[in-house]
Amino acid sequence: MRGAGAGLLLGPLASPPLRAATEPLRLSMGSPMPQGHPATTCLAAALDAIRAESDGRIDITLYPDSQLGSELSMQSQLRSGAIAFSLTSASSLQTLAPIAGIPGVAYAFSGYVPLWDALDRGPLSERIRDALKGFGLRAFRIVDNGFRDVITSVRPIATPADLRGLKIRVPPSPLLTSLFRALGASPTTINLAETYTALQTRVADGMENSLPQIEATRVYEVQTYLSRTGHSWDGLWILAHGRTWDALPADARALIGRHFDDAVERQRQAFVQMNTQSEARLRAKGLVVNAPDQAPFRAALAASGYYTEWKGRFGPQVWNALEHHTGPLGA
């Protein structure tokens, strides 16, 4: 039995510039997220629903776990149109459109209510989307990859001093690199798919990420200490190659967009539930867990000039848009 939108797709999908109706529209989507991450499972379900509702005429294949390369490689593929869609972290997008990384400013958001208010609507969200549009990308909603913590093999992180000299894996994010350098660590960019081996062989002493990501990558097998620093938030934008997206018929765009929105809602709910349960599961796997006071970390960053630097780099208008949701930063 056809879904409600399938009949609408028969005519438009046969018209230029798309293929004849006898051929399905085959598109690719890249993602750095592992198979077990809620972003992967919820998006896979959405693509199945799109495929079913269109009677197979829209066939989007998801390639998770960095199968299509690093995030920066997938950005290039998306911008060239080699792939039609991607799931791309805000932190790595900062290297393309600097404003895209602003949700990851250290200790900016106190929780999800101000975060989603900032990123789902309003001037900050509009500025980010417009910046990505300038690079030929169409941004949908952003999925949750959580507030980030530190996991290490050498020592727990109880104070900023414990980070000094620590070789820590970070994504290709200027904000995160700047954050850890300001606290005396030695951040290094390593592809997520290669992080387990890097930690196992001590190329890096630790990594920072959300608890579900720590679980999904299984790095707990080669690390000892989990410190709930909550130093930064990161999410992943669902992006489309702009010209490919604009070439789709309106009803096809509506169908895809509706299921992407539904996937984001399910993912956010699943992520919160998974995050709530993750600490207990990681303790059961042998990790030593501590929850340091965040105030000394914020104070150390303020004293280092971190907030002043990033206010200058983003510009006062963008920074004011951020502080509208977060309150004053670096005071």
TrEMBL record:
Pfam families in alphabetical order: DctP
InterPro entries: DctP_fam (IPR018389), TRAP_DctP (IPR004682), TRAP_DctP_sf (IPR038404)
Superkingdom of origin organism: Bacteria
Protein keywords: Signal, Transport
Subcellular localization(s) per the UniProt record: Cell envelope
CDD domains given in the database record: PBP2_TRAP_Siap_TeaA_like
PANTHER family named in the record: PTHR33376, SIALIC ACID-BINDING PERIPLASMIC PROTEIN SIAP
Family of the protein in this entry: Belongs to the bacterial solute-binding protein 7 family.
NCBIfam families: dctP, TRAP_S1
Protein name: ABC transporter substrate-binding protein
Gene source species: Methylobacterium platani JCM 14648
